[in-house]
Amino acid sequence: MVLSPIEQRIKAKIEAIGTPLKNWDIQINRGILTGYNEAFIINGETKEKLIAEDPKSAEIIRPLLRGRDIKRYGYEFANLYLITTFPSLKINIDMFPAIKKHLLSFGYDRLKQTGEKNARKKTNNKWFETQDSISYWEDFYKQKIAWNRIASEKLFSHIDEGIFIQDSMHFFTGNHLKYLCGILNSKLFIWLMNIIVGEAAGGNAGNADNVKNLKIPFPILMQEQQIEKFLQTKEYKKIDILVYKLYGLDKEEIEFIEK
Known about the structure:
By secondary structure, the chain is α+β, with helices and mostly antiparallel strands. Helix content is 36%, strand content 13%. The chain folds into two domains: 1-26 and 174-259, no CATH class; 28-173, no CATH class.
């Protein structure tokens, strides 16, 4: 994308200030790839049925968000859940008879990970396990920021502890999450994400490399408290103003972004 002089000025100001996210002691991970969502993603009614049949089922069923559930700043829970038989957990499926029965109702040949026709792709994982190992599963039990990596519009959502996300999204855990959520969702960063790649490249502005290289200043306490307050009161315009000041935009540049 060829930038106009004012766009070049704004982009230069953003890139001159702050620390790349990759140096914030965060780790960007992808959401969970099951290889067969119909079997592993269940609704609330099925969840309750499995737990009623075997209370132990509750140990490996967790709330799940899809890309479409992600909104700017927050999310909408659609009462969907994930059966978390991750290879890294080394689960004995015979200890969860109700879940084993549920999975087998979709057919062993469909669930096996052999790469054969009508089966899941070839891995070393067992038939009842998800396609990815998910060695970072503990991070889902922490607060996190998640975004839909393939959508043209980038929406960064602050996600509560214990909520898992699907593979259409990336996420990271760490400190200062509400501060980062406010800045990443500001009008200035919405504009920046669009000009980095934008819709012309299929929305890939949200890939991990682009996001981890975004430069954001470490917060002073007052800034962080202000953003957290504005998030709580939903005064998002005030966050935009604070971010403009943070990056030293002048009146002309602010008017350009606002338009």
